[in-house]
Design goal:
This protein has about 110 residues and is an alpha+beta fold. The chain contains two helices and seven strands, in the order αβββββαββ. It has one domain. A hairpin with a 2-residue loop joins strand 4 and strand 5. The chain starts with a helix and ends with a strand.
Length: about 110
């Protein structure tokens, strides 16, 4: 019985270790005010972000795989641009821009409002 328990425990440990070892691409997430972000004109354009008043603008490529989300809901780029334009006139809102460091492209742009 101890042998079966030991083998089963070893197997479960092996499975959990493999799950923990999943590789996720390294990312960097910029946080800025929506007023400090220039949105892309197209799905294969660029987005420009300025994290602080004294920071330089940084420009990165977006792709058709870039996800745009408002309050956790994914949306098309055109609809997201309209939402961002509305937020610009509504006060200070933060936007997050996630850069995939392996591909050097933006993987996600998202905003949570209160």
């Amino acid at each position: 019985m101890k042998t079966i328990t030991a083998v089963l425990s070893s197997f479960l440990l092996l499975i959990s270790t493999a799950a923990m070892g999943e590789d996720y691409p390294p990312t960097k997430t910029y946080e800025a005010l929506v007023q400090s972000v220039r949105m892309p004109d197209s799905a294969n354009g660029t987005i420009t972000v300025k994290e602080c008043e004294k920071c330089d603008y940084e420009t990165h490529r977006v792709t058709e795989r870039t996800v745009y989300a408002l309050n956790g809901k994914s949306m098309r780029l055109d609809d997201f641009r309209l939402a961002i334009d509305a937020l610009r006139s509504d006060g200070d809102h933060n936007i997050n821009v996630r850069l995939d460091l392996q591909t050097n492209t933006i993987s996600k742009v998202f905003v949570f409002t209160q």
